[in-house]
Amino acid sequence: MDITASRAALDSRNAAVVSPGSFEPRNHFYSRVLNAQIHPLVSFFLRMSNRRIVNRYCHLNPRVDPDFLESVLSYTPKYFGWAGADLFCTTTAAGNRRLVVIETNSCPSGNKSMPLLSEDDEQAGYRKLIEAAFLPLIAKRKGASGDLAVLFDKNYMEASAYAAVIADLTGENVYLTPYPDGHEDPPARFADGLLEVRDPVGQWRPIRAAFRYVTQKPWNRIPIRTRTRVLNPIISCLSGGRNKLIAMKAYDIYNAELEASGLQIRTPETIGDVTKEEVPLWVQKFGGHAVVKVPYSNAGQGVFTIVSQAELDRFMEAEHAYDRYVVQSLIGNYVWSSVERTGRFYHVGTIPDRHGHIYVADLRVMVCGGAQGFRPLAVYARRSRKPLPTVLDEGESSWEVLGTNLSERQADGSWAASTDRLLLMDRRDFNTVGVGADDLIEAYIQTVLAAIAIDKMAVALITQKGSLRRGLFHSLDDDSVLLEEIKRGAQGGRRIAPDPQRR
């Protein structure tokens, strides 16, 4: 699927109709993936039951009660049923390894990068997610009537796949609807909480349930409270799925609940509610090496790795849209990593290549949660552009060495992916990632813990009537720009005049 097709789909004034029987694997997986053979170890991990995972984890972590961990993996999320976490594999000078959660994403990519677990299951993780999290949503009797839709603002490859799978599983046409930020006349709108999409002939159609792949500031055009059922609802983004500031607080609160269990969400040391003027103080606290994040960005946007005064100066001189930031300890190589309260952690990195180069790599784990608890859906890795040096040269961009995101925003606003740095869980790439079965289990458990923390925060932030507890939210995040965007989203992104064609 080329960039031109994706751009045309995003620019469209109307939704496209996706009919049953339209799923074609070549349209929904990277070409490398279509010809890849999943690594036997990864296949084994994905087929493991949660009970076997619990037994193995508790054998290696005897302080953790198996029954408690099984109850964690059996948790049924109320709002955050589809999640992905990005993790770094780190170690200390003493060789103490740990996987740390860098961020958790609502609407995460993953299935297009996942070799098939079984060659006769062409829809793979796409189908598993829809069966586990979306079909139960539309099975509920109460709610609006109407059609089904997929909303998207990027990743046309995966968004269109979900539309095709929903069509196959329901036997209905599905409206694949672009809804990018800043669209002058989008083919989607909310009227009194009901989503309506403009079909190919220009008629507005009510939507009873929507699969949301809207990632860029979705709260500025999608209300928190909707009559249309939405997966994932916007509260999952605001509670940590797209809000790194509240994610930090959600992790802290859940970690306090987990304290006696032996479990913990592991993250870099994180400071929240930081104003721009305070950033240099916290960078100094971390020894001049730190990561500064705009809390509401994703796909690598708004992330600044700082290892020098020049990089700090560039951050301070730049214009930023929001009032609050998150500052984290930086994980680099041993001699230029931040010193945390618990010591200095640095990247394990990839297995050295034939030139002896080690690259920073992260691990993306995508999970879904439903009535039967959580299950892993997809795993892949991404490496940095440049190898990890022992000493970082003066003037060298630290992002080139540390940044692993594949998404690149183009001049016209579209997104492209640098797939040459994608590391598949296949027989070839997996061996270079440098992780084993126990690392995959640890990454899965960390992802589930992070997702539960965010779901619990979402539950706390929503009233019984489905409205935002504004006082509580403001106490957790009082960024004035964000609050104005949420207010706009409550109006469906714009005020909608009555339309005689509405039904």
- Judged by helices, strands and strand pairing, the structural class is alpha+beta
Number of helices: 17
Fraction of residues in helix:
25-40%
Please give the alpha-carbon distance between the first and last residues: 35 Å
Mean pLDDT: 91
> How many separate structural domains?
2
Largest sheet, in brief, is:
7 strands, mixed
User: What Rg do the Cα atoms give?
Assistant: 22 Å
**Coarse shape:** globular
Number of strands: 21
Unreliable runs: 495-503
Tell me what portion of residues adopts beta-strand conformation.
15-25%
Care to describe what's here?
- Helix content is 33%, strand content 21%.
- It is α+β, with helices and mostly antiparallel strands.
- The longest helix is centred in the last third of the chain and has 25 residues, at 437-461.
- The model is unreliable at 495-503 (pLDDT under 50).
